[in-house]
Design brief:
This protein is an alpha/beta fold and 931 residues long. The longest helix has 46 residues, at 789-834. This is WW domain-containing protein.
Length: 931
């Protein structure tokens, strides 16, 4: 027989523990014990409670502590909080009479109530029937109204006393009797279960229980877990657990729910939760349980799809950091105004147009980020009496945030500078960039603590003269505006380190700039009518100056008249009308690292430029340079050289001595040939030779193992060069007069690339086999085509190199084997010497093993020597052919000489170098006759 519930109570199942609990929607009460409608039903329900002794004892202790704590908390919270009805929203809110704070959410202390007790702190439940509390906006007081009788009262009507006494008596009686029943039931359960032993049914595997004395088999109605209870339906039978599990979750918990659950669990365990990160969850709403985390200091809600933030956020009374960036917010919650602890607020990347001026009451804010929104102005209100009472300010604006140190309002639609921003005297960083402000107020100069001021991408036509009062200013960015001049007082900003005035309409620079002796970066580029600022020598710490796209004529004399220890390392003068390299640029020989002179009218390069030996980048593109003078190798630290779009017909040979060069751009010139040792630039990564008149590329280019980009488009190459076949290299051979027969050589070139890759990996045996296969394929042609001849020459040379390396490895292996065999021979020989005297140094087995190993070593040495003989013949032939083909002749001759030295062929070595000496004299005589 089932026991009916008291009126207003419902039953549900907790998914985590799978236990039934009971709740009252009207009073928000919850209980693990079934509230019975009458006393008999209550005692029957108690009879079914089965717990262990330990659990019962713990429960008694918990019940007593909870009861004492709740009584104290209820009395305290009841004296502090009032539940008030708001007619405008038709909802109740809670008001703290001591602190003046209000909350739409039920305060945590009021939620902790004794089971079956009235809702402590809920004045509507503590009032007589028909009465309710209402808040009077005029007097700011609570009064009470009886809608049925029309009565009203400023004092709270009292409940009949007998109702409270009856509830207390019932609560005490229930707890006392429930504790006794739990202990008795738990002990009886232990005794009963000791008479049974559990088994599994052989047929279906279901659990059965056998009485130890009578051996009677039964299926227990109660499992051994005393916390798990079968439910009894109205007919007395066992009901389905699944059918009664009404609240079981059908979908998995979201990541946000998991995070909030974990935070609540920590709070319940008296572990304060200080930070909650709910960012990047694509959440549309945030669980209201977050606002119950009373210790929370950092809340990250960024990267979601929130359209609004509930006013209940004001319940986070300890909040310090709040990040609601990257959402869909159109405003900020007014309730945030009471969060006096808030220090950092990030609401960037939203759709905020405006918000309540009451938020300026957050006077503790030190960092405010409202960038990437759609605001045209900041909230400002004047003459509001209520705000006057709360803030003591007639004008309520951002000026109330006197503790603010960082303000970011960039990427909005501001049409004027925020009003009274000059009152934020603690500001160190202000970002007003990417707006539409035409001017700054003169009071802007009152921000004496300002260090970083970003005003780029606005509509500023002038700057206030008060800017000179910013004595702490270190960075000023006024680029992309409409400025025609700078205020003379700017020279008073003695701490200025970075000044960017690019992309304006400046025509001259005030002489006061020379007082900025701390300036490190000075950018005035893209001011088309600017006169050269002849103040650079006064800027003793200047490191970077940019004056490109300024329409400058030749740089004045002494423009760079610096002392020897000046730190200037970057000079940008591109896209002007300069006809010669600045005369005193060599004075920067110890510091200059980057020089941009592209897009000018320079026709020659003076050799004094080569005195700047610290240069790392040199840009001379789009000029009229015809030749590069000798001495380029002095720039031995150069990594980037751009001389494209000039009139060069030849490149100096000492270019190949720029061993640190990574980028070389020779495009759009009139080059017919390149230095033969171009491949010695082994750090080269980018090579642009396009739009010239080259007919061939140096064979040393195969040494460019680090190159990632090669362009030789629009030249006169008759055949595709046999290198740069690595798949990781971008190569452009377009618009060259390649013959159609080049298609037949493509597979051969692919094979060359594969073999060279093995050679680079020191897989000499595999590479030699590939080159041999390639030469066999070429030999099978009825006649060697002209376009295949270079491939054959390359394959012959590289196979000779592979054979030489194989010989070196074989000789090293033979030497190692000889050392090991010498030790074995010594050991065996010593044993044989002492055998006539009957002395045993080694046992017979050890002698046998040593002799066997010695025989193996001898056989291996024979194998290696045979291979060396074969490879020596092949290497000699290949390298001699390479010398005749003039393919890497110097390298081939040197390698062949090294081979003769290693194989002790002294006569061949003498003959080789004698021939080289004779050929060198003949070549020199022919060279002199040609001149």
């Amino acid at each position: 027989m089932s026991i009916s519930l008291r009126d207003g109570w419902e039953e549900a199942v907790d998914p985590s523990t799978n236990r039934a609990f009971y709740f009252n929607r009207a009073s928000n009460e919850t209980s693990w014990v079934r509230p019975a409608a009458n006393e008999d039903a209550l005692w029957k329900a108690r009879a079914r409670v089965v717990l262990t002794k330990e659990a019962a004892v713990v429960l008694i202790q918990k019940m007593w502590r909870a009861r004492t704590s709740r009584q104290y908390m209820q009395s305290l919270m009841q004296s502090l909080y009032k539940r008030i009805y708001d007619p405008s929203t038709q909802e109740y809110f809670y008001y703290n009479a001591q602190t003046g704070q209000s909350s739409w959410m039920t305060p945590r202390g009021l939620k902790t109530k004794p089971q079956t007790s009235p809702n402590v702190g809920d004045e509507s439940d503590m009032l007589p029937p028909g009465w309710q509390a209402t808040f009077d906006n005029v007097t700011q007081r609570v009064y009470y109204v009886n809608e049925s009788t029309g009565e009203s009262s400023w004092t709270m009507p009292l409940m009949p006393s007998h109702m409270s006494d009856e509830l207390d008596e019932f609560s005490h009686t229930f707890q006392d009797h429930a504790s006794a029943i739990l202990i008795q039931a738990a002990w009886r359960g232990v005794l009963a279960r000791n008479h049974f032993r559990g088994m599994l049914e052989a047929v279906d595997g279901s659990p059965i229980f056998i009485h130890k004395e009578t051996q009677k088999r039964t299926r227990a109605l109660l499992p051994f877990d005393p916390l798990h209870r079968r439910r009894v339906d109205s007919s007395g039978g066992i009901s389905s657990e699944r059918s009664l599990n009404l609240s079981k979750r059908r979908l998995p918990r979201s990541k946000a729910q998991i995070i909030v659950d974990a935070a609540e669990d920590s709070e319940l365990d008296d572990i304060p939760v200080l930070e909650v990160n709910l960012s990047r969850l694509n959440a549309v709403v945030i669980s209201g349980r977050v606002w119950n985390l009373e210790h929370l200091e950092t809340l990250n809600l960024s990267g979601n799809q929130l359209g609004r933030i509930p006013s209940a956020i004001q319940d986070l009374t300890a909040l310090v950091h709040l990040d609601v960036s990257h959402n869909h917010l159109t405003s900020l919650p007014v309730g945030l105004q009471t969060t006096a602890t808030l220090r950092h607020l990030d609401a960037s990347h939203n759709y905020i147009r405006s918000f309540s001026p009451k938020l300026w009451k957050l006077r503790g804010l030190t960092s405010l980020d409202l960038s990437y929104n759609v605001m045209t102005d900041l909230p400002f209100i004047e003459g509001d009496l209520r705000l006057l009472k709360e803030t003591s300010a007639w004008q309520v604006s951002i000026g109330l945030l006197t503790a603010l140190t960082a303000l970011n309002l960039s990427h909005n639609q501001l049409t004027k500078c925020p009003a009274l921003i000059d009152n934020c005297t603690a500001l160190a960083t202000v970002d007003l960039s990417y707006n539409s402000m035409p001017a700054l107020e003169s009071e802007f100069g009152n921000l004496r603590a300002l260090e970083v001021c970003l005003l780029q991408h606005n509509a500023l036509s002038e700057l206030p003269d008060s800017l000179g009062r910013l004595s702490s200013l270190r960075t000023l960015d006024i680029s992309y505006n409409q400025l025609q001049c700078l205020p003379p007082s700017i020279g008073s900003c003695a701490a200025l380190i970075r000044l960017d005035g690019s992309y304006n309409q400046l025509t001259e620079i005030p002489s006061g700039i020379k007082s900025l002796t701390s300036l490190i970066s000075f950018d005035l580029s893209h001011n088309p009518s600017l006169e050269f600022p002849n103040v650079l020598p006064f800027l003793e710490r200047l490191e970077t100056v940019a004056l490109d796209h300024c329409g400058l004529p030749d740089v004045p004399t002494n423009a760079f008249a610096y002392s020897a220890d000046m730190p200037l390392h970057t000079v940008r003068l591109s896209s002007n009308g300069i006809t010669q390299v600045p005369l005193d640029v060599e004075l920067l020989r110890n510091s200059l690292k980057l020089l941009h002179l592209g897009r000018n009218a320079i026709s020659s390069i003076p050799t004094r430029l080569y005195e700047c030996t610290q240069l790392v980048e040199l840009h001379l593109s789009h000029n009229l340079v015809v030749t590069l003078p000798p001495g380029l190798a002095n720039l031995n630290r150069l990594e980037v050289l751009d001389v494209s779009y000039n009139q060069l017909t030849v490149v100096p040979d000492d270019l190949v001595r720029l061993y640190h060069l990574r980028i070389l751009n020779l495009a759009y010139n009139k080059l017919h040939q390149l230095p033969g040792r171009l491949g010695f630039l082994q750090r080269l990564e980018h090579l642009d030779l396009s739009h010239n008149a080259l007919r061939w590329l140096p064979t040393t280019c195969h040494h460019l193992v680090r190159v990632k980009f090669v362009s030789a488009a629009f030249n006169q190459l008759e055949r595709r060069p046999p290198f740069f076949y690595d798949g990781s290299v971008y190569v452009d051979w377009s618009n060259n007069p390649f013959k159609a027969s080049e298609v037949t050589s493509r597979p051969l070139l692919d094979l060359v690339a594969k073999a060279k890759h093995d050679l680079a990996q020191r897989n000499y045996t595999t590479a030699a086999a590939l080159f041999s296969n390639l030469l066999e394929q070429i030999a099978s042609f009825p006649g060697v085509p002209k376009e295949v001849e270079p491939i054959r020459a390359q394959a012959t040379f590289y196979r000779g190199i592979c054979r030489y390396q194989q010989i070196c490895q074989a000789l090293a292996a033979i030497e190692s084997l000889s050392d090991e065999s010498s030790l074995l021979e010594k050991t065996i020989h010593e044993q044989r010497l002492v055998e006539p005297w009957g002395v045993k140094i080694l046992s017979n087995d050890q002698v046998f093993v040593a002799q066997t190993r010695l025989n193996e070593l001898v056989q291996q040495k024979i194998t290696w020597r045979t291979a060396v003989t074969e490879w020596q013949v092949e290497a000699t032939d290949d390298l001699n052919q390479s010398i005749r083909f003039k393919v890497e002749a110097t390298t081939a001759a040197f390698t062949l000489g090294s081979l003769f030295v290693k194989t002790f062929q002294v006569l061949l070595l003498i003959t080789l170098f004698s021939c080289d000496l004779i050929m060198g004299k003949v070549a020199a005589r022919g060279h002199r006759n040609a001149h």
